[in-house]
Amino acid sequence: MTLIQLALIFSAVSFFMYGIGCFVSSYMIQEFVRYGIPQFRKLTGWLQLLGAVGILLGIWNIYIQILSTLGLSLLMFCGVITRIQIKDSFIKTLPALSYCLLNAYISYTLIQSL
Q1: Distance in angstroms (rounded) separating the CA atoms of residues 64 and 61
Q2: Residue 109's closest CA among 11, 18, 29?
Q3: Strand runs labelled E in 37-100
Q4: Does the pLDDT value for residue 1 go beyond 90?
Q5: 3-state secondary structure of 47
Q6: Do residues 13 and 52 make contact, with C-beta atoms less than 8 angstroms apart?
Q7: Contacts of 48 (CB under 8 A, 6+ apart)
Q8: How many CA atoms are closer than 13 Å to the CA of 70, on its beta-carbon side?
Q9: Given 3-state DSSP classes, what are the helix, strand and coil percentages for the chain, each rounded to the nearest 5?
Q10: CA dihedral 99, 76, 74, 49 (to 10 degrees)
Q11: Is the pLDDT of residue 10 over 90?
Q12: Using one digit for the tens of pLDDT, what is the confidence trace for 58-104?
């Protein structure tokens, strides 16, 4: 298994879990209130689930995989901006930044493989 394949699996599983968490986790519900954007919690959850499914569908269609990883990278970039705006510490911002960079790297690598 290649590094990109492992990264794709890690990203898909992570976003699937976070996406579900947006709907069922009281912690996630409170976090979106703390971010000042509770109205975007469900949308964020759906986008995370859609991105995870897109990564998996990318097994058969690389363009869906590229679009999904780009979308997840953009979503996490928005998460980084949100964390900066509410003045979260670097440690609290690091997960969003890491997922942003991971999915950007995956997208770049997939595009290069075309």
Answers
A1: 6
A2: 11
A3: none
A4: no
A5: helix
A6: yes
A7: 15, 16, 18, 19, 22, 72, 75
A8: 12
A9: 85, 0, 15
A10: 90
A11: yes
A12: 999 999 999 999 999 999 999 999 999 999 999 999 999 999 999 99
